[in-house]
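ingest -> validate -> predict -> emit
validate: passed (alphabet ok, no gaps, 227 aa)
predict: started
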Amino acid sequence: MIKAWIKCTIFFIIGCFLLVVCAVCWLAFEAGSAHQVMRRFGGIEVVGDWSVTPSGADDLYVRAVSLRPQQDIVYDMRALQPCTEYTRECMVQEAAAINLQMISTGMILKDVDEFFEKYKPSVESFDDGCPAVYETTAIIKENEVLSRLPVERRRIAAQEVMEKIKNDGGLTYSLVTPECRSFFREKPYMARAYTLYLALIMHRAEGSFSASWVFLAVLPEMRSGAR
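emit:
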């Protein structure tokens, strides 16, 4: 009787040990996947750099792409004069407005596609050749599109999106370039904005049994949202 109890106890301890080892290995793999994503945009030292504070149009943009936009950004956007010039400032202001609308309502209106068509021909002329604002807006739109799909179709579509980003560096333009590395080092808050929504796409693509997107979303560098 005692021998049988000892044997069961030993098997139980071994089983628990193996379970813990498997869990640690799984978490290490998922964490590695998350950090691999960040390395494409400069790594944790860029994403975690809070020494740079956005100002002007960048401040509006970063506040607009927060997962939970505050009411003050709505008032600030309404107070702006329409921007009609074909400049970087106008592009960022327009992107902030349509991102805020998509995130707040879940609706994708005609002005979203008009924005992409308007700036697609020359978007690389802004931000020293890094179309981060354009691509972040594109991935926010993609996240909203995916949220509308049936569950069985959503994961497949999200996997296709992630595969394209992995292979091409972005949805329309690549962000895995020397120009973008320099841009993200200069403006790390833009790297956080993009990575935050990339984590949401990863969640839809990898499903509930993957934790890599969680590692991205709950990092102290990301916890406060894009800001």
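Residues 22-32, 220-227 have pLDDT under 50 and may be disordered.
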